[in-house]
Design brief:
The chain is of the alpha/beta class and 329 residues long. It is built from twelve helices and twelve strands. Bound molecules: manganese (II) ion (MN).
Length: 329
């Protein structure tokens, strides 16, 4: 039987669901939960929403985001839940300990787009699309139900987040037509962008300025460092360091961007981004970390200058050895 049909059957046969998504959620996780929950509630079903870490502040504009419960907020009402639905989550571990324990006792529907999904559900609907919210939209369409503007906005935010506003490699005609369809159904595209990208604290901009002013660019590598003193000078927090390495990568002619962050206890966190064919996950794993071809990281013990020298030398060698793209920019 077709998977969507199987899911539709379970959704119509039962009345009480719990919908969970991965810890440290972003818009695709929360958007999938909220969209699916709202459509089920419109059909008279009861839903409980769970996330180990709750909803990040920048997503509180999504309708229903205040209904997402953290582990210790799950009360008596979970006792008569019949079905668990897990969205945008490659592995049950990512629900957090208590979430995992509880969901394991239920019949599970697993809806996801991660290639490494462990197929932990009783029904697994895993497709390698750009965002899980695309699959939720597909399911709603399959069930012949109508997407209202709140569902549309929730699902659209998942697409914006997971394609980096249509900049990533995963952009294709399907995701664009799905996004277009959500706009037709009333998604508030502008408010998604404002909430996701235009509410940065000023301290984050100041920090970015401090870090970029001292950045270096040589041998197709652009790098910068962050020390606790710089963070303090900018009046910033650790959270404000998010996204800086991506800015470094935007440099013309850079193939690798590298950010060295000095942490307490003599540790340096190194983040890598690449373009034009350098696999930074190889560098990261050489230094005890990991990640993807274009985005990776590691934690190295030692003094900032020593770690910098070791990592940069390794990168220089890799770039020197890489003759695959002679006419790179
Ligand atoms: Mn996702």
């Amino acid at each position: 039987m077709n998977r969507l049909k199987e899911i539709e059957d379970v959704l119509s046969r039962h009345d009480k669901f719990i919908i969970g998504s991965h810890r440290s959620p972003e818009a695709d996780a929360i958007g999938s939960q909220l969209g699916l929950s709202r459509i089920l509630r419109q059909r008279g079903k009861k839903t409980i929403l769970y996330n180990r870490d709750g909803v990040p502040k920048n997503l509180s504009f999504l309708k229903g985001s205040d209904q997402v419960l953290e582990a210790d907020e799950l009360g008596e009402e979970v006792k008569d839940v019949e079905i668990g639905i897990v969205v945008d989550c490659s592995d049950l571990e990512r629900l957090g300990d208590r979430g995992k324990k509880f969901f394991k006792t239920l019949t599970l529907i697993n809806i996801d787009h991660h290639k490494d999904n462990t197929k932990f559900g009783d029904i697994n609907y895993v497709r390698p699309v750009a965002a899980t919210t695309e699959i939720i939209a597909e399911l709603i369409e399959y069930m012949g139900l109508q997407i209202d503007e709140h569902i549309a906005t929730a699902l659209y935010s998942g697409i914006i987040a997971d394609t980096s506003s249509f900049q990533n490699k995963n952009v294709n005609p399907d995701v664009l037509s799905r996004a277009s369809n959500l706009l037709e159904n009333g998604a508030d595209a502008r408010s998604v962008i404002v909430n996701l990208y235009e509410k940065e604290p000023f301290s984050k901009l100041r920090l970015l300025g401090e870090v970029l002013a001292e950045a270096s660019f040589q041998d197709e590598i652009v790098w910068a460092e962050i020390t606790p003193e710089v963070i303090e000078r900018a009046g910033a927090t650790q959270e404000d360091t998010e996204g800086i390495v991506g800015k470094l990568r935007s440099t013309k002619g850079a193939r690798v961007a590298c950010l060295f962050k000095k942490l307490p206890e003599n540790k340096i966190k190194v983040s890598f981004r690449s373009k034009n064919g350098i696999d930074v996950s190889e560098v990261a794993s050489k230094f005890g970390g990991g990640g993807h071809m274009v985005a990776a990281g590691c934690m190295v013990e030692g003094k900032l200058d020593d770690v910098k020298e070791k990592v940069l030398n390794d990168l220089r060698e890799r770039i020197r050895d890489d003759q695959r793209i002679p006419g790179r920019n």
